[in-house]
UniProtKB/TrEMBL annotation:
Cell cycle in keyword set: no
Signal sequence bounds: 1-29
PROSITE patterns xref list: PDZ (PS50106)
Source species of the chain: Billgrantia aerodenitrificans
Superkingdom of origin: Bacteria
Keyword annotations from UniProtKB, A to Z: Signal
InterPro entries: Cofac_haem-bd_dom (IPR007314), PDZ (IPR001478), PDZ_sf (IPR036034)
Protein name: PDZ domain-containing protein
SUPFAM superfamilies, A to Z: EreA/ChaN-like, PDZ domain-like
Occurrences of domain PDZ (ranges): 288-345
């Protein structure tokens, strides 16, 4: 029986919304703090030496990010280096990869793989989708210092099964021993409901919202469990996680508390503007680090908007994102994409790399097998100044 991948697709889009969701209750500042400062939410400046000494006594430190922001990853690397100087017994937990990618992470740290081999072995481009160049400096830091890397996420398929079938419906060995999550805090439910409402294909019924919240809690619990496992033998576990999972202690921090890991702290980046700014609201995090406002990001790589898995004849489409290039082109679940622009496809990364090289405003011919028949489908990518959805 074919499972529906609507929930994983919705979650993939909603994660971006949750990560970038505007924060409420900000406080207008009389003057902006300069970039490069540690602040306590509310505005008080923190002494960095005292802060890091305090962080070094924790079991878990959570470093938030907006996934496509290079300055956020530079800040994470800066913070990792400071923590490592005090706690060389460090483990870095990555939201970016599911647990199936752990052998590739181990081989990378051991120096057994080069960059291309690691990206292939970890299935990075299909599992995560964000440009690996954003994360490679951190990966090299871990390799240079022999800091273990731990995959703390789960696949969209497993998230969908746990949210749809329930925890009793999935054997423990198929969910990596992850236990059922604590209920969402009321304020977190409100924020997730706001994210759910922004998704174009979200149902407006209570059942759809509850499925979405259940899947989000799977996500939070999986990452909290991975970090709890990493710190079980006394190591400092540092998690690199989207900021929407961390703000106000609602997501992963709440699940860590339920797992009896109380000594944790959340750190977030905070952009300060040139002309007036807002201070981080109280309760947002343990501390924030001020970053200079950055200009708008360059045109992101093209995206087709499909969830794909390997197939003996090419690449199988398991899901289509609403509003995507793939949907507009007429791709369907179950299609086997055999060639892109005449190039044979043997693995999901082949298609991802080909799509990311596609110039804006052009057509990409795809050779597709559907129900035993071959056909050509033209994927039309939006121009660089267009308003089309390029997910």
């Amino acid at each position: 029986m074919r499972r529906s991948f609507a929930l994983p697709r919705m979650l993939g889009h909603a994660l971006g919304l949750l990560t970038c969701l505007a924060l409420p209750m900000t406080v207008q500042a009389d003057s902006c703090p300069p970039p490069g400062q540690w602040l306590q939410p509310g505005g008080e400046r923190l002494d960095s030496a005292a802060l890091f000494a305090n962080l070094a006594e924790r079991d878990v430190v959570l470093l938030g990010e907006q996934h496509d922001r290079m300055d956020h990853h530079r800040w994470q690397l800066h913070t990792l280096a400071g923590l490592h100087a005090l706690r060389p017994d460090m483990v870095i937990g990555l939201e970016m990869l599911p647990r199936e990618a752990q052998p590739a992470l181990d081989a990378w740290v051991a120096g057994e793989l080069d960059e291309a081999e690691f990206l292939d072995a970890s299935n990075w481009r299909s599992a995560w989708g964000f440009d690996p160049e954003l994360y490679l400096p951190i990966l090299h830091f871990a390799r240079l210092n022999q800091v273990p890397l731990k995959a703390i996420n789960v696949t969209p398929e497993l998230r969908g099964r746990l949210a749809g079938e329930g925890w009793d419906g999935v054997p423990e060995d198929e969910r990596f021993g992850i236990t059922a999550p604590a209920e969402a805090l009321p304020a977190y439910r409100e924020r997730l409901a706001a994210v759910h409402a922004q998704h174009p294909s979200a149902g407006d019924d209570e059942a759809s919202l509850e499925r979405f919240i259940a899947a989000q809690l799977v996500w939070d619990r999986a990452m909290a469990t991975g970090l709890a496992e990493a710190t079980a033998e006394g190591a400092l576990a540092v998690g690199l996680i989207g900021q929407g999972h961390l703000q106000y202690e609602h997501g992963v921090p709440h699940q860590l508390n339920d797992l009896d890991v109380d000594a944790h702290a959340t750190l977030l980046p905070w952009a300060v503007e040139v002309d007036g700014c807002e201070l981080p609201p109280e309760g947002l995090a343990h501390a924030v680090f001020t970053l200079a406002e950055t200009p708008a990001q360059a045109q992101p790589p093209m995206q087709l908007g499909v969830y794909i898995v390997p197939h003996e004849a090419g690449i199988e489409v398991r899901g289509i994102q609403s509003g995507s290039v793939a949907e507009s082109a007429g791709l369907e679940e179950g299609d086997i994409i055999m060639r892109a622009a005449g190039e044979a496809l043997a693995r999901p990364a082949d298609l991802t790399q080909r799509v990311q090289r596609q110039p804006p405003g052009t057509l990409l011919p795809l050779e597709v097998e559907r129900n035993g028949e071959r056909r050509e489908i033209l994927a039309r990518f939006p121009p660089s100044d267009g308003g089309s959805d390029t997910r």
